[in-house]
Amino acid sequence: MQRRPLRSFRRHLLDRMVLRPSQHPIHAPTLERVILPCETETIECFVQQSHQDSEPPELLILKFPGTAGRAERSTSFPARMLDTQRTTLCTWNPPGYGGSSGQASLATMAQAGSAFWQAITEKHAGPNTSIWLCGNSLGCATILHIAAKHTPDPTHTGLILRNPPPLKRVIKRAANPYPHFGLINPVIADLCDAMDTMKTAPKVNLHAVILQSELDTLVPIDFQNEMLDSYGGSVRKVLLGGIDHDGLSTEHHEPAIRDGIRWLWKHTCPTNEPLVG
Hints:
- It is built from eight helices and eight strands.
- The protein is α/β, with parallel strands linked by helices.
- It has a single domain (about 5-270), classed as Alpha/Beta hydrolase fold, catalytic domain (Rossmann fold).
- Strands 1-2-4-3-5-6-7-8 form an eight-stranded mixed sheet, sandwiched between helices.
- Helix 2 (about 105-125) crosses helix 3.
- The longest helix has 19 residues, at about 105-125.
- It is globular and about 55 Å long.
- The chain starts with a helix and ends in a 9-residue tail after the last helix.
């Protein structure tokens, strides 16, 4: 009888350890704010479109920020690296972030991510639309859950993952310096399967570009590679030399990133048109 309350308490601890939600207003004058009704909650997202008409885009990009990220800060990456007039980028705020309703938790993040995928693809994607899911850090866990659950067509769907975390190992490493860190083990064990990338990655067979920060101290490259070793699709790794987990890429990194984008487009473009400049 005590198992369910104990599991709820452990998952609450995990949410407090991992998530960094914020709801303060952020000015985003160049982005279009959209509210999506999804089941019992609403999801806030911010949209950037390169075209004004109602025709489906050639490329639809769904973006998932990291644990402290907000959609209002979304940039035009990776669309700015593509030579096309028809791209749509939709960046979400998960439950409890920004103007999205609900409570910030890993479990609700996975459920809402699935609903966000369905709502956006139904609204924007056409028969000749390529779809990319682009995530940073924790956002990669949501992406892998979506890809594992919905099994998108690999001929026109691809992933861009920056510093994807095996969450259990990352949390355990973060707790290691503290006294009684061994007590974290039963808490980690209650991480929901949907956000456990070690379980979702083997179920995904999509082409993926992996952007890896060379000096990442939060999700070291060997942690990322352990998870990627079980990934079910083809991978193109891009090393971002000299920067930490949250470091900004520079002009020095851009040629390698652009090559990765070109590789992903080659494998996901339904019409085989060379959109990358």
